[in-house]
Amino acid sequence: MTRDDLPVLPTLPGCYLFRKGDGTVIYVGKAVNLRSRVGSYFGAGAGKKPRFIVRAAASLEFVVVKNDVDALLLEANLIKRYRPHYNILLKDDKYYPFLKLTNETYPMLQFTRRVVEDGGTYFGPYPSIGAVRRVQELIASVFPLRQNSGLPMQRRKKPCLRFHMGRCLAPCIGEATPEAYARVVEQVRMFLEGRVEETAASLEQEMMAAAGRQDFELAATFRDRIGALRRLTGYDSTVVRVSGDLDFLGLAAGGNFAMVQLFQMRKGRVIGRDKRFFTNAAEAAPGEILDRFLFEYYAHASSVPPLILVPESDLDIDTWTTFLSGRTDRRVELRIPQRGDKVELMEMAAHNAQAGLEAELALLERRGEAPGVRELQQLVGLENAPWRIEGFDISNLMGSHTVASIVVFEGGRSRKSEYRRLRIRGLERPDDFRSVHQAVYRRFTGSLADKLPLPDLLLIDGGKSQLAAAKRALVEAGLEIPLLGLAKRLEAIITEDREEILVPETHPALRLLIHIRDEAHRTAVGYNRKLRGEAMTRSILDDVPGIGPKRRDALLTYASSVDELREATVEELAGVPGVGRAVAEAVKAFFSGDG
Predict the structure, then answer these.
(1) The overall pTM is greater than 0.90
(2) What is the DSSP letter of 313?
(3) How distant, in Å, are the alpha carbons of 19, 46, 280 from that of 169?
(4) 215 partner at 20 to 30 Å CA-CA among 190, 376, 517, 543?
């Protein structure tokens, strides 16, 4: 797509959608000025990601909105609808769980994934179903809300077991008045909003009132609830030196993935945490990642504090301040802390985000979903995910000492203990194609065939000719293993059908292949240099008087380079088995004269 293909764009706020030739949306963006923002994709200073988007796009459409806040909302909804390839996405893009107090005379607490206009009060979103279940269990153990009388509530003839355990007021049999039940509902509401101390104070007030009426059994019930509340919440909360109500966010990114963690602080106490794991984050600016998190979380959050601390980034703070203030009907400030205790909070959040990101990546690896592996399977149409990949490269610096390297990656990570290096034999002159054929054939027919398991995929450093040579070697070895090549010039992925696949360098599959190719190249070049150094040392030792093949090999075992021999003392050389002092002195004299 070129600038000439663009429609006439207005200088108004809105959203724009890049589409491929088949109509697939590949990127959604927002802009305060559509003409200026879209035009930047075609300028000389456009970054990698814009250039890839423009190269892949065939058309562009746009939607004008009233202001930048509306653009923010529309962008988030379009991304969720189309899941464009170049937009940052939630790794697990589902509806996050909430708890809902139903809209009834005697409300109950429900688990749900959808927030709808039904009069209920929603709390969340929570980071996982497990977090929701823990909150539900805590509430069930402290607050006597009904659970087993249906929705809407059905009258029963006999109470359930929870009533006999003192854990339900049993409105279904007429045991609870609306006023008494409403007080419990209000305490649950305060607790879910993070006002734990106020909840405890409310229970204490009811305990004192019951004691004043000499209803000591009821007072004991409230006492037990207070104890349970403090016991079950006290150990999960962290007290810090910052007072007031606020949220603070930490961000960590690595490769194609990113993690954002949010901590809720109420009355100077950290009472909760949420997190999101994102993919398609390579080349994404921190502001773009935070944009996605803020919308996913705060568009549905039941509680928005007056202050939100965010990491330093290019986030449009003014737009988010306007949006959140409008949503809560009061001033909400977003701030990037620069000094003081709030900076310590941000460091804590960043540390947790990094730890969370590393944990998620380790989990992906354990599940066979390491970064790039699944994407590679989908990109080239493999039947199974290529968990074990072996990369081959050939090196012949200055046309001598041709060698091959075999590197092994499992789950996207290198297994250096299984790397192998081969000397290519029988070549009169450098020949990459014969070298690749020999290396692959020897890998699967020689001693290595018994020592190493079969890989799921072979990656050959080179183009179609190198790939054809590797394919012939596999056929001769009687094996069928998927093959790919990687051509350096355009970083094109070459398939066995000689098809070239071009994807952005940020694509996780290509990033994985480049990493394997570069590791194979590094290993091959290192081995070549080592052999050249040994050969040079060997030829020099042949000129030292009194040194035959056995002593030469003994000295080469001790020192693999000329510099090491030159720097060694007579005593050190004499200590080499089979050398002796007279030969050691001859070696030193030779190198002294040489130097």
Answers:
(1) no
(2) S
(3) 58, 65, 50
(4) 190
